């Protein structure tokens, strides 16, 4: 199966520096998880979204995200390993473009995702957490 655009959203961090009972990406703001806001920004731009989460949250995330465009995979011990595992997970779908974003960075918008990278400086926005790979 070939798809045009895919997104990997990294949500496997422990949130140890955050100091809350749950990792930052699972914290609720206005009744929704931070991760919900992040995922919603990618729903209209990506054909498929892979959430890389720690093993202890896989079942909970599968129950929470019922959209067929959202798949859950187990992340790794590091950000790099989580990206690698998610890319392997996506391999069967053969995406032309893959965006990688941190699940706890909820302020990304669909407009930001769709703009070409060279235009991001116009808005004085740093996209350290948004990377795109294409063939």
Describe this structure in words.
- By secondary structure, the protein is an alpha/beta fold.
- The chain has a single domain (5-134), classed as Spore Coat Polysaccharide Biosynthesis Protein SpsA, Chain A (Alpha-Beta Complex).
- The protein contains four helices and seven strands.
- It has helices at 34-43, 58-64, 79-90, 110-114, and strands spanning 5-11, 28-29, 32-33, 48-53, 70-74, 97-102, 131-134.
- Strands 5-4-1-6-7 form a five-stranded mixed β-sheet, with helices on both faces.
- The protein is globular, with a radius of gyration of 14 Å.
Secondary structure topology:
Blueprint: E1 5-11, E2 28-29, E3 32-33, H1 34-43, E4 48-53, H2 58-64, E5 70-74, H3 79-90, E6 97-102, H4 110-114, E7 131-134
Q: How would you characterize the largest beta sheet? A: 5 strands, mixed
Total domain modules: 1
Based on secondary structure, the structural category is alpha/beta
**Tally of DSSP β-strands:** 7
Q: What best-fitting shape do the alpha-carbon axes yield?
A: globular
Number of helices: 4
CATH architecture: Alpha-Beta Complex
What features would you highlight for this structure?
single chain, 135 residues, Spore Coat Polysaccharide Biosynthesis Protein SpsA, Chain A, alpha/beta
In summary, what is this structure?
The protein has 135 residues and is α/β, with parallel strands linked by helices. It has four helices and seven strands.
């Amino acid at each position: 199966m070939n798809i045009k655009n895919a997104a990997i959203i990294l949500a496997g961090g422990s949130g140890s520096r955050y100091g809350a009972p749950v990792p930052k990406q699972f914290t609720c703001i206005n009744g929704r998880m931070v991760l919900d806001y992040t995922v919603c920004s990618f729903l209209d731009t990506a054909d498929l979204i892979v959430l890389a989460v720690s093993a202890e949250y896989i079942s909970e995330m599968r129950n929470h995200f019922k959209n067929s465009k959202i798949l859950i995979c187990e992340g790794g011990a590091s950000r790099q390993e989580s990206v690698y595992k998610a890319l392997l997970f996506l391999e069967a779908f053969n995406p032309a473009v893959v965006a990688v974003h941190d699940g706890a960075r909820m302020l990304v918008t669909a407009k930001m995702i769709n703009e070409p990278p060279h235009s991001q400086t116009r808005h004085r926005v740093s996209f350290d957490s948004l990377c795109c790979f294409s063939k």
